[in-house]
Amino acid sequence: MLVQAGIRTGQGDESAVPAVSMPLQKINEALEPMGNRAGALTDEDRIRLTSIATSADRLAAILKDYTPPTGNDRFRQMQAGVDWVPVVQRFINELNDSAASIQ
């Protein structure tokens, strides 16, 4: 859905895919070293984890703005992009902002 929202708003595959994958990769790269080493978390780790957790809360709140349609028209509404494309675009923007704020 993330890439599809980009495509539906005019991005090509070549820009819609990185718009989603790059921030996810940056967040993963920030978390990976913490999970791969022994010992206690550093103060820097705790600050980074708190920041990422706050971002995750904001992302979850954005997704709560959309209620998938139910009933017979569900597929047509989803296919038409009714209501979900703007929510997903806000999610992608927040995801990029979150990744950019990682130190």
List keywords for this structure.
single chain; 103 residues; mainly alpha; 0% strand; elongated
Question: How many distinct beta strands?
Answer: 0
The share of residues in extended strands comes to under 5%
**Terminal Cα separation, in Å?**
28 Å
Order of helix and strand elements from N to C terminus = HHHHH
Please mark out the parts with pLDDT under 50 across 5 or more consecutive residues, or reply none. none
Quick one: biggest sheet? Answer: none
Count of spatially separate domains: 1
Structure description:
With 103 residues, this protein is mostly helical. The chain has one domain. Helices cover 74% and strands 0% of the residues. The protein has five helices and no strands. The protein has helices spanning 2-8, 13-36, 43-63, 74-80, 84-100. α1 packs across α5 (84-100), α2 (13-36) runs antiparallel to α3 (43-63) and α2 crosses α5. It is elongated. The model has no long low-confidence stretch (mean pLDDT 88).
